[in-house]
Records
---
Amino acid sequence: MSRRRRAVAPWVPYFFIAPFLLSFALFTLYPLIQSVILTTRQSFGPGYDHYVGLANFSNILSDAKFWVALKNTLTFAIISVGIQMPLSLGLALLMNQPWLRGRSLFRLAIFSPALVGSVFVGIMSAIVFQKRTGMLNQVLHSLFNFDPDFPWLSTHLMPAMIIASLWMWTGFNMIYFLAALQNVDRELVEAASIDGAGPVQRFLHITLPTIRPVAGFVTLICMIASLQIFELPYLMLARLNSGPEDRGLTVVMYLYQTGFNIGDLGYASAIGWILAILLISLSILYRRLSRGEAV
Amino acid sequence: MKPRSKSLTLNLAKALNYALLLLACLVTLTPFYWLLVAAFKKSEDFFAHTFLPKGDGFLGVAWYKLTLDNFSRIFTELDFANNILNSVFLASSTAVISTITAAMGGYALAKYEFRGRDFIMGIVLAALIIPAPLLLAPGYQLLYHLHLLDSYGGLLLPAVAPAFGVFLFRQAMLNSVPQSLLDSARIDGCGELHCFWVIVLPLVRPMVGAYLLITFLGSWNNFIQPQIILQDADKFPLSVALASLQTAYRAEYGMITAGTLVSIAPLAALFLLLQKEFISGLTSGAVKG
Amino acid sequence: MRRSLLNAISSLLSLPVSLLALLALALLSSVLVLMRGGKKQEGLLFWSFAREHLRAYVSQTEKWNRAHPDYQVTLAYISEQALTDRMMGSFFAGTPSADMIEMNQGPNVNAWRGPDEATGYRDLAPLLRRDGLLDKINPPSISPWTRQGRIYGLPHDVHPVLLCYRADILEAAGIDMESLDTWDEFFDALAPLCVDLDGDGYRDRYALELSETMHYMVVMLVDQAGGVLVDDEDNVLMDSPVVADVLARLARRAAARDKLTADIPVFTAAAAQPLLKGQVLAWLCPDWRVANMYDTAPGLAGKVKLMPLPAWEEGGRRTSVLGGTMLGLPKVTRGGNETAEASWQFAKDLYFSKETAELLFRESGIVTPIRDYWKLPVFDEPSDYFCGQPFGRMFIEQAPDVPMRSSSPYLQQASEELLSSFTRLVSYANANDPDELPALRMEAQRLLALAAKKVRLMVDRSAFREGSLR
């Protein structure tokens, strides 16, 4: 019997990759090119448009609403990720104790909010954060005599958004850190502990270097996701507006409002490109910083 | 004396550890408890009590004030059964279609030598960093020209073979599909497609499970696309149907909370059943990426 | 043949179970979705965002349907947000939605933000003139729907505003509400009652409900004073001294030091709680809020009364306007021209009938914009809820004074900017002496100038406005 290797027909790999290529060409590449063209137009829905040249970009530069949206988005992303990362890591460390009992129950409880998408969290938050009648103020008032009329949904939208996002994502990121902690060399930790290294030293010199690549990656992913936040503030404000002084307005929310409430797909595309440039430079910056590290 | 105090501090540390974890659980679970209770409250009690209505019943709770009305109303006054069907349909079809096509793409990139492979891999990597909001407006315009607005096609077609999935499956194929196995299968006369179904997919089973779950979850929680694309209420998934209950003048809080509970319950069930796949799926991007 | 089938089955079985399970689920749900099929909508479809409106239309629709078997009308309730999204979606996509759409004021006016040929609604002005109906309508009611001579909808209401107050609490405190002619008198008289009732260090009682999250109330009070935010030609006029004065005087009362206004989510069940608990002593009450109060605050029956709004100046206007509904006829419909005339007939019969005027008032307290019907006896019936007051008559007495409103699509942005200016002004008042009115006015003027500049930029940006077409 001759064991001769059968040649693979040349079309086979193309057949397997075809769905990706077709859908990429039609639903990513074409719209991507179209989005460049759209930035030079002002439209009223997809059916009516005017050529406006670079007016969309120059209008954005003088558009106070856009700058507020960008400021809000950056503030939200930096503060929310800044609190989330140490909190998630801290929880992961608490969960990683070898003697811990009921680990899977704890994990289930702490992770569970991540299942609920920002749509549903936004809808819930619109009720939970109400003053006087909202659950949060009522609980805080009875526990700490907190101001029952604290205006989460008007002047303090940003802290409310951050609290909601922490509730949603801290447990989710904890899972990443927990996975990364599995790579920490236990024997090394024990050896260090015998040598008299305290918990802080062990954390700084053994644990942290091991999980650094994952921590960097998780931070990047969270930043990218936070900079695209939309559903949470949009639904928290019951879709009515962007809060007083546009305090709840985010970049994607502004993109949505201009593109789909007002119908100006051109302006929306221009906003989209500014956001894209921001996000892509963030990714590039991350690659520069993490070059040489195995991720 | 000394070891004893050491074990005391150790026990204290353990207790603190547990206390902090319990606190975290309390914070994460309280909103769920509130939601659960709120869904069963009558509208006049909705804001009158933070959690269960107080009264002289068992445990000091006025149990008789709880009602199933909110649930019966979302199924009678609203078309929630229909919305659930739509969500199940959209999420499961998206998950199946995109898992199969992404696995195919990943397989081609991992296990075949062909002209243009590196170029396509470059496309996959580049596509990973294109933010979705950028494509909202032109994508909407494209669907308008293709007459796919207000149709499920407009939601399902763009979900075919996402770059992220192709990338994940390529990594999985590289790690867990041995070339020798494929070679010997070919020698035994196994067709390429058959090979893919019978040998390759089962080998990347963990990735398949994980990816199915994350796409299912993502589609279930998707709001912006169906919100923009669909106009006919008969086609609305839960997310859009529920969000449309938020209204300026008369928010129906009972129906909103009952609806939220119904919307997240299937995910909770799925999670309880498939906790491992979920967690490995959600972390696969980070750990392997 | 059999072998290949067996092969197919066995190869399916080797697939991951999760994939198979979801595959089965996907197939099953697709079958169900397909079986459900597209429900073919027959006849004319009528959308409204308000259930209580539809309740008033049922009997007349049945009558119409008996007389017009070829043009059966179906009434459908659609929540307000969904209606906005679906209406705009269908206008943008050029696909049919409903034959008649009853829509609320607010973001919906974006429908005529583009060029006229892209506006989804038919211009009803020629039809109204043809059928001689224009003069029957109270002019302020039709102004929000009239854009550059075109009328995009039939007006549904007048929505005059009165002040509703907790008569039980205020009369017990010896305050003669009827004697309070101006807002300053009102606030000064009620201030002593606004205290911390339970001793937890936080004030539990406020004189007036005034949302700081939604612009309605502030805009309404500016309207009352005669302030104009944006006119029909999209001129932004919000930085006028009248508007600045209203904001300054409100900010003084909303400042934290001696806060007399309560920021609560207006009109919702949540908002009913502070009213029921006496945390708010008075609130602005347009006619449609009556039904809302019956629904969400039945406990207030016999405890509340209505009175004309206190004026901004002695002898000034004692009412304002809040909200508003129109019935529009979309250009694109499933039936095309054939059903267009039938839709108009139905809409006209419905909106101009005496029966609607009566039923609408009974169902929701809403006063008709058709002036001939204002003398109907139904409006004179005393109401137990309002301590025996004939509230219909009280609203109608104010109806001719209701301020005219602009139809500008930029009114929405201007209103939001107005609210932002107000919020900033309150922060300024918190940081400074809130009783220094001249300083507050100057700051208000400055903030409004900035806000107006923002809205003007937005107006100027539009390439579709007449005159700016390239």
---
Amino acid sequence: MAYGFLPIGVMLATAFLIPIASLKSDRHAKHVATAGMILSLILTATMVPEIFSSGRLVFQIEGWPAPFGISIVLDTLSITLVFLSILVSLLVVVFSYKYVKERRTKYYSLISLSLVGTLGMLVAGDLFNMFVYLEVLSVSSYALVAFNKDRPAIESGIKYLIIGSLGTSLVLLGISFLYGLTGSLNLADVSIKLLSVPGAAAGLAIGLIISGMAVKAGLMPFHAWLPDSYQSSPSPISAIFSGVTANAGIYAIMRIGFISLMSHQALLGLLLFFGLLSMVAGAFLALVQSNLKRLLGYSSISQMGYIAMSIALGTPFGVSAGMLHMINQAFIKGLLFLSTAFIVYRTKTDNIYEISGNFRFHPVVAYSFLIGSLSLVGVPLFNGFVSKWMIYMATLEVSPVLTVISLMVTVITLAYILKAFYLIFLGNAKPDPDAGILPLSMKIPIIILSAIIVAMGIFPELSIKLSVMMFSDLDRFAYIGDVLK
Amino acid sequence: MIAYIAAVVIAAAGLYAVLMKDNVIKKIIGLSLFSNGIHLFLISLGYREGGIAPIMQGLDFMRFSSMAVDPLPQALVLTSIVINLSVSAVGLSIAILLYREFRTLDVRKIREVRG
């Protein structure tokens, strides 16, 4: 395994093979994208046993030793998120077969590129590579938001571009501060050298990076692009944004925050503030939306808030709970956005009140949306319950006030998602001749995601064990030891 | 020292343009300026008065390490300039679409998407 991490190369090749394969007609774009993602998924799966047995795999590109060369670091945390990202992207691509009818070449090519960016961020062992992949992810996301080329899409695209570029510039500024302070970019090397650097200067640098990454994750003071982008981009893309892109942002916050300054209280306080604000305000704003995609966008902000808050607790239990919630959210939001995409595909509108009472939907979509909603709220037997329960317990250890806030936000979650469910699926009695429509390529991803959600809810031991293993990967000194050897 | 001051001034001008100007093109120029300020800062970190190019041939290590400029920031800035170019390209192409659809580049008049 001297080649490093192959799935990135595979997806990069896929992204550029798609335009070549569709020179004459774009019929085969989707097949190339699917094949590339399945190949990356298999390649990732072959690495999993090795990583679970040895703990951490470190590749040095071209054999240059760690502080000088480029390191690729794969541990349980990153491989889980890599697997998750490829899986969600694959399901979204399969779902898009029937959904996207024009300019398919660009669509699949951009999805592949954004996956390249995500994978690169998840496995990069140094700050600058992380930044470069962040930009790959960002630029393809800007284009994806504006993909529809109608007025809302263009407006949201330019908004996302301006806010997102400011965010990535902040990341670059933070990285250059860190380079000035430590003279190194390798995360492990930076981590050692930060031990002898004054806390305030390092805190400023890391704070800048965290703020920049929070734009990607959609945390509250940096969220302004998110609802608009979710509303105006093609609906399956929202599933990628909230299931893949946002996780990459949270991952970067965790990795950089914990590897370099785990004990810095001010940073944890900052993250806690972002988290609480997103949680509460996101839920309240979701309550008043009449646009389904926008509602789910605010809901994403709120759930990202849960994740950031429980990571900011800093206790082993809290951080594991946050990470588990991150995995669960990817599936839940993936399912909800794909169901929404079908609703939009069928009704040609995303206004809840216009849909209400005028359409009947295929039962698979109705039940999937219900499963997604219940899991989002955190009802037992669904995976959302497991992680939310862990979050309640973890906050109880630190401060009961946080538990009360989390519980109250859960109640608001129940209110807004059940309002949407009720209006869309229960508010009609009219017979509808098209009620049986549900193409097979849309049915399969929805059923797979629902099955994963229920399975992870009924058998929680495995995912809890996984989240504890993922937490142990954040240990600063073990990371330094493994990377620098 | 003058380079650092220039970096701060350029970045501040860029940030001002992004935040305060209403024209989309000016905002995109501001984004470029902001990152160019950061680039100047980054490259100043590796600069050394009277330094030599970091080629070790024919020099012993002590002399090399006391004279050569740091090449890493230059590599980073080159990469970052290319990235910045692509962001500007995407931004300007969206701005063209924006003008075609809305017949204006004033962000105060572009308010379609709302809850």
